[in-house]
Structure formats: C-alpha cells, structure tokens
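Notebook B, p. 112. Complex prediction, attempt 2.
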Amino acid sequence: MLLLKSKTLIEKSKPPNYCIINYQRNQRNYHSIRAVMANALPSNLLDESLGGSSGGGRMILVEDCVETSGAFVVHHLLKRALNSHSSDAVVFLSFSHPLSHYDRVLRKMGCNLSVQRDNKRLLFLDMLALDHLDRNRGKTSEDILIALYGEIQKAVEISRSHEARHHITVVIDDVSLMEVDANGSSDLVLDFLRYCCSLTAQFGCSLIALNHGDVYSTVDQPNLLLQLEYLADIVIKIEPLATGLAKDVHGQLTVTNRNLRVDSGKSRSRIHNFQFRIKDNSVEYFYPGSKT
Amino acid sequence: MFQGLPCRFEVESVRNDGCPNSKQTMQWLIANDDDAARPSTAQQRRRSSAERLWWTRVTNRNSFSVLVVVVASVMVMAANKPRSGSFSRNFGGASSSVPSIPGLKHGPNGTMLLSSGIPDLDKILGGGLALGSLVVVREDPEAPHHMLLLRNFMSQGLVHHQPLIYASPASDPRGFLGTLPSPMVSKDDKSRVHETEQEKGLRIAWQYKKYFGEQSSESHKDGKSEYCNDFDLRKPLERHFFSGKQIDCVSLKESADLGAFHERCSSFLSQANQNNGNITGGRIAIQSLCSPQCEYSNREWEMLSFVRSLKSVVRLSNAVAVVTFSPSLVSTTFSIRLQHLADTLVSVKAIPDEDKELAKLLTGYQDMVGLLSVHKVARFNTQVPAILETTTFSMKLQKRRSLVLECINQAPVDGATGSSYGSSGSCSGSSKTGSFDF
C-alpha cells in the first residue's frame, strides 16, 4: 500500500515529463487516426450510432411526422452509399419527388446524382412518372408491385455480377405513398417489403425505407408500422422538439439499434438520442444542450 | 447653400453636349479634390466650354460643396433612366423572358412562385406559392374562412390571366365566381395612407410608418400589373376578367368517382402548359374535397389516390393546386396522410364571438375574423425546412374590405386587477383556451 502510494506521489511529482510523454503519444495517435480518417468518411453522431460501415444486409426504417420531415436522413444515407471510396450501387424507388429534386439537394451536399446514374451506380425508379400510373388502369396493384419487385431483383443481380460492386442499397422514399398506390392494401405493401428484406439476407444488400409514424398512431391493431419495426434492424425516429419550433434545433432523432451481436452470443439493442439542425450542405447532430 | 451650384438641368446639358460623360467628370472631381481651387493642367483647358462653365462654378466654392455637388449629381443620375455602359444593370443570371411575366417571380432554389392573392400570406410563405406545389387547407366546419383564401387565390389568377379550374360540391359552381373580389383601386390606397397619418397617436413612432406607406404606394403606381394585388372583398370582379380565358368549373356532386375529374385536371394542365410556349402558371382550386354530398366521400383511399395523382401531375407542370378539406368529416388517419401529401399546409380556425377570455388575452380581438396557422411550407430542391417566426396569425378584415394577416399580440396585463404575468399571460397554460395552440 505504501509502495503504491509512493509511486503515485512520485508520478505526481514529475508532471512535466509525464505530460510530455503523453502528448507525444497522443500526437502519434492523432496522426495515425488522421491517416485512417483520410480514407474513411467524416463521422458524425448519426454515423456512429448506425454502427460504422454499412456492411452486411441491414434494414433501416426511418419514421417521421408532419411537423418534422425525415427526408434529410434519407439524403444522408444516400450520399453515404454513393461516396466515391467504395463502389456500391443504389436502387432508388421514389414515390414523392422527381429526380431533379434529389439531384439538387445532393449536389449541395457534394454528390452528383446524374453522374452516378450515368456510371450505372444509381438506378432511379420514378414512380411519379405518368407511365407507372397509367399501368394502374389495366393492371391491379398486386401486378404492379410484383413487377416492381422483379425490376429491383434484376437490378440487384446485375449489380452483383460486377466484381467491383460489393454492396447494393435499396432506398424507398415513402412507404405510405406506396400504400396509396396500392389502394390501401397494406398487406401487399408488407409482402413487397418482406421480399425486399429477403434480398438483404440473400445478397447482402441494405434496405432503407421512409415511413410516417403519425399516420399509424391512431390504429391500434397490428399495423404496417409495427410490422416494419419488427423487420428492421435499425429504427430512426424523427420528432419535433416537445417545446415547439426553433431555428437552431430542428428536432430530435432517436436511433434504436436492434439485434446487435455481442460477443457472448446474446443480442442487445442500443438507443441513441440526439438533436439535429439541417443545413443545405450538411446536417449537424449534437447532444441536447451541447449546441455551440 | 446651393446657389450658384449647377442644378439638374445644367448637368443634363453637359451630358447632351457630347463631351466626356458626367460620370467621368465626377470621378475626376473626386480624384482631384485637392486641385479644386486651381485647375491648371492643359487637359482641363482643352475641355468644352459648357463643362468649364460648370467647373468654374464649382471651383468657386470650398471642397465641401464640391462633395455635395458630387453626391447630388450622383443621386440625380441614379434617379434617371440608366444609359447603356457604366450605369446599366445587367440581368445576366436570370432568364430574360420570365421577369416580364406579371404573375410569376423567381423563388429560392430555382423555383418559380405565383401569388396567393393575399399579400401578407405571400410574405409569410416566403414570396408566394411555388409552381408545382400542392397546398392543402384544413377547414373549420364552423366558419367559411377557407372561402376567403380561395376567393383571393382565384381572383389573383383571373387578374393575371392565368388559366383556372374550380371544383366544388355545389350544383352550380359558376355562381361562386360572382363572389370573387376585385383588385383595390389605387385612389383608395392614397386615402388609406393619409388616414393612417392622421390616426397616429405617438407622433415620433408613427412617422416611420408614413414613409413606409409612401414607399408601398409608390410601388403600386410603378407597375401596371403587380405580382400580388390587394383585393377589395366588397366589390365583385369585373366582367372583362372572365371573358375568353381558360376558366373551368366542375361540380363534384355529379361525378360518381374522381377518375373523370382527374382526367379533366390532366387535360387542363396539359393545355395550360402548351400556352404559346410561355409559362403562365395555372391554378387549380378544389373546395371541400371530402364533403358528404359527394358519392365518393366514404371511399377514403380513392380520395387519397386522387390527391396523390393530382400532386404528381401538378408537380410536373407549372401550376398550383389548392385543396381544402375538413378534418372533422374524415378519419384521423386519412387526415394525416393528406397532410403528409401536402407541400404547403395551412389551417384556418374560427374565433367565437364575444368570448371574454379571448378578449382579455389578445389585442384587437374585436376585429379578428379567424386564425390562420401555417404548418408546412413547400421546400423544393432543398432539405432545409422553413422555420417561421410565428405559425399562427389572426385574420382581420381591414375596413371590411381587404384581408390582412397579423401576428397575434397578447393584451397587456392590467396591473389593477392584480393578476400576475405568470397566471394570465401564458397562452398555452390556460385550460379554457386549450383548444387554441399559438
């Protein structure tokens, strides 16, 4: 005990050397970290909570509400999937906006969608276009969804055949609009999403779906949202602040990371909660109260 | 102080003589301020006689008056029409054809805007309604304030000669066109400005308002057709606005399903897009979509898919669609889905008459007709949401003529009654007025 105490006393009495050593060690670490980060993406709270690289087949469900739109998360994940370091491909199913909207938004964030589409890294399926709607006259919604799934599966298989493509991401903007297109039969939509989920297991792709949480809040029985939450590996919920609107903080994010494989073999879930502020070229994420 | 200094017409005569233009003279004056008293270089002697005349007059004064002359001349020249060369502004970036269209203007992020017919609402929404957007208005079943919004919207379209299609559950929707307001005449504007001057209480504070009023009336005089008119709700729209334009009225009661109406909207939009190759901006106004008189009103998914396909068609065209519905007539799920579909979401609420609680809480309660809340503002080509200073505004009819939107002001707490700021001041704390969320 006495020896230990004297050791600590000795250490305390030599602060300068100790600090210098520490500083040099930190500097070495810092440089190595910088070297690693030069190849990796700049990370923010959202990326950290999502668990690092998007390896393996995962399903991410993004829930938002009328007061706060969750489209910025979809833009962020899309940009991450299309970053130039990897050669991943993206299949984008858009029900709410045409390509020009996403093109302009992502261009401000530093990602050129038209170039990616020409490089065959992005397949944009525009469901707003009239020919998709005209098909509704002759065919039932079931046929349309089956055909749509066929297109996605074909695209995934073609992408996989390229050696360079390691990972394919399927993004669905707005599951609730898919329900409207299917004339209200949420069973069809659920089947479609389950099939897309099977792609994640089969081909190792990721699935990102945006849905509106407040639409289902009044329905008590097992509804589409609960089923999707069960299917999803990660659920990102976007809500407004309880106190109302603010210019500095646009809302709060809750990331629930389920089915985390821990070493002991059990699975756990982790919940992260932080706030965000949306800007044109990026989104700031910060813990409540730490906004500078 | 200005005696002997050149007045405006002398400057012009200098310009018209063909001598080096006055701007160069000005620059030279500014640059050579020290030599003001003694022009001696040969260059100066070679100048024309008129300019020398001007120059000698100037040099007789001190340098301060030279500066005043410079400033006065610059102001004079700025007020004149710009000539080509140094004083002309180049509209290089924007396309040249669009600013000439009276009903449209450029908005942020490459969108085009058209006016909603209410100047205050345009200001709140950041300039107007974006082309290609869907505006959803949540009605209050107790009061027809949504009709005020629709009337102004449709009148503005007719004044700007924009094609219009109007649908309502009434059997004869043409009758509604007779209630559309007419734009305010400019004479009334001037009298309004003078009246506000006389009405003012605190002289010092209101003097600034006088100048603001003058500026706005000047802008009214400048353009023959402005972007947004002030509408006089007591005067009906003149006949000549209705003639020959693309105005279509549809009664929703007769159609068994919305498919036929959707066809009509699509053909209307394709016609509007082909209009001489110019963008005019079409308007679609649908009143009370879910009213129980219509046969389809219990088929919620059909209504949703109609609005969805309308939105997708409008998005690809240069039109704005305004749809009003009453949330009390449909299920909550449907109402929220429709609100998610909207690009711009606005709701109107009625104010009960003779409510003493509200009269104590708000200033100007007697003039208020209703409340208007803005929940969502259309954001195309950007992911940044529009955060407004306030979301709830009071609707007032100024002199029973024009619709004005104002921020809600809390009434000052009366010290004599003894109630503290904490108990009577909070809008959200009181349980009686809990239905109003400011």
